[in-house]
Specification:
The protein folds into two domains: about 290 residues, NAD(P)-binding Rossmann-like Domain (Rossmann fold); about 200 residues, N-(1-d-carboxylethyl)-l-norvaline Dehydrogenase, domain 2 (Orthogonal Bundle), CATH 1.10.1040. The N and C termini lie far apart (about 50 Å). It has 21 helices and 15 strands. Strand 8 and strand 9 form a beta hairpin. It catalyses: D-mannitol 1-phosphate + NAD(+) = beta-D-fructose 6-phosphate + NADH + H(+).
Length: about 500
């Protein structure tokens, strides 16, 4: 690869320029104009483009003229940048897999259209209501489901939900768009699409079903009943570490691969997708491109969420407090790496047997993936929206371990490290920006109460009834005291000494 190419001479990515790209770059060899969009994806970001869209790009290389192309949809003002980038590039983009062995680039062509909802809400509803749309996939983040963690109920009072209930023809939120389209399909006698959540939620399909059905029921009881009876919501587990695209990534793609791409994606070589085989209107033959179709996703979801995602939180908080920027830097610190090993060891007894997976090998692979220096995954991405992540990634393991009478030392440390992180400065006194939907409440409690964990643990919308467990409260409190008094690294020295006794 030539890294001396001037970024000014890089070739602007679009359909016309594909034939001018270097031989070291794989490009779509199928006719994208022969593809029908059978899938609408809501929430096109880096992860979707590194994961589901890649699987479908592989599929189209085997099945040209497919009916499973992707129409991407952005609902948020934040999605303008994606709209502008994709629409200027015929919806093509560069995917770069980075590892210590080298970088590999390919251009993905699976997304053939992109709709930005604020520009034309009816166009999005029309596309979803079209009989050609047979699957709607979602990556709308853990917080995008309007799910109240403490009760498991639908957050019907959220302003977005209230707006969409009052403006069914001009929705702004995901459930408003889905129900508008499903209602039209029901009235016209068109079978519903399948809703496939691809977010990191245990039972993501079950949650999507419960929340969407609740919304539809509030809008129209008959529609709610039809959704509950007719729409399929498969659960699935997704896995690929995909950092947010940075200006350095855009420059790297121009310099190394001579491609001028406004919004490339950088990711790791590892890739996994396990999907429950429950679709109401057909699906691609995903097995042919390595997707694992199963009757029960639950053990795979638990394994991934409780080992990978929980470890990411511990890495994010401890690494931020210790003053690191990147995940691979944190993993080079033996103290934090050891803490991640201990956390995984604690979580393992809470998992169910996972068919075809060697858990020891899986955990070893996770450590290697976290340590990949080429990914340059930044800690703020891991800590983003922690109030939605903590219950889903850590607290289920805590509950199970308490029930089993098992160790919760490092799970409690993860919670305590979050509370210390919420104070907004690292151990050197540098500011940490807190990016969370309820940042105001969290940071106020952290500032007012310092090393007293109880006020934060009393947030039932996050912790449910866990504040009733004296063992858990005491464990979190002890860690939090140490983190405030000694800092992250010294706390880990004390912890490891204690656990090695």
């Amino acid at each position: 690869m030539n890294s001396n190419i001037s970024t000014d001479s890089a070739i602007k990515l679009n359909e016309t320029s594909l034939s001018h790209l270097g031989n070291n770059i794989r490009v779509p060899n199928y006719d994208r104009h022969q593809i029908t969009n059978g899938i609408v994806h809501i929430g096109v970001g880096g992860f979707h483009r590194a994961h589901q869209a890649l699987y479908l790009d592989n599929y189209f290389h085997q099945n040209p003229g497919s009916e499973w192309g992707i129409c991407g949809v952005g609902l948020l003002e934040f999605d303008k940048r994606m709209r502008d980038a994709l629409n200027s590039q015929d919806c093509l983009y560069t995917l770069v897999e980075r590892s210590p062995e080298g970088d590999r680039a390919r251009v993905i062509g699976a997304i053939t259209e992109y709709l930005f909802a604020p520009d034309n809400r009816q166009a999005v509803i029309d596309t979803l209501a079209d009989p050609k749309c047979r699957i709607v996939t979602l990556t709308i983040t853990e917080g995008g489901y309007y799910y109240i963690e403490g009760s498991g109920e639908f957050d019907a009072n959220h302003p977005t939900i209230q707006y969409d209930l009052q403006h069914p023809d001009e929705p702004i939120g995901v459930y408003g768009f889905l129900t508008a389209a499903l209602n039209r399909r029901r009235q016209q006698g068109i079978a519903p699409f399948t809703v496939l959540s691809c977010d990191n939620l245990q039972g993501n399909g079950n949650i999507a079903r419960k929340m969407l059905t609740a919304f539809a029921q509030m809008q129209n009881p008959e529609l709610g009943h039809w959704v509950a009876e007719q729409v399929a919501f498969p659960n699935c587990m997704v896995d690929r570490i995909t950092p947010a695209t940075t200006p350095a990534d855009i420059k790297m793609v121009a310099e190394q691969f001579n491609i001028d791409d406004a919004f490339p994606v950088v990711t790791e070589p590892f890739l996994q997708w396990v999907v429950e085989d429950n679709f109401s209107a057909g699906r691609p033959n995903w097995e042919s491109v390595g997707v694992q179709m199963t009757s029960d996703v639950h053990p795979y979801e638990m394994m991934k969420i409780r080992l990978l995602n929980a470890s990411h939180l511990l890495i994010g908080y401890l690494g931020s407090l210790a003053g690191y920027t990147y995940v691979h830097e944190v993993m080079a610190d033996p103290l934090i790496r050891q803490a991640v090993d201990h956390l995984m060891a604690e979580v393992t007894p809470t998992l169910q047997p996972v068919p075809g997976i060697d858990l020891d090998n899986y955990k070893k692979t996770l450590i290697e993936r976290f340590a990949n220096p080429k990914i340059r995954d930044q800690l703020p991405r891991l800590c983003l929206n922690s109030s939605a992540k903590m219950p889903k990634f850590v607290l289920g393991s805590v509950r199970d371990a308490l029930q089993q009478g098992a160790a919760i030392e490092y799970m409690s440390l993860t919670v305590a490290a979050w509370f210390r992180y919420l104070n907004g400065n690292d151990d050197q006194g540098n500011t940490i920006p807190i990016d969370d939907p309820i940042a105001g409440t969290l940071t106020q409690l952290a500032h007012l109460n310092g090393s007293d964990a109880k006020p934060l643990l009393n947030l039932t919308e996050i912790f449910g009834d866990l504040s009733q467990s004296s063992h858990f409260v005491e464990s979190v409190t002890n860690h939090l005291h140490r983190l405030y008094e000694f800092g992250a690294k010294e706390t880990l020295v004390l912890n490891h000494t204690k656990s090695d006794r």
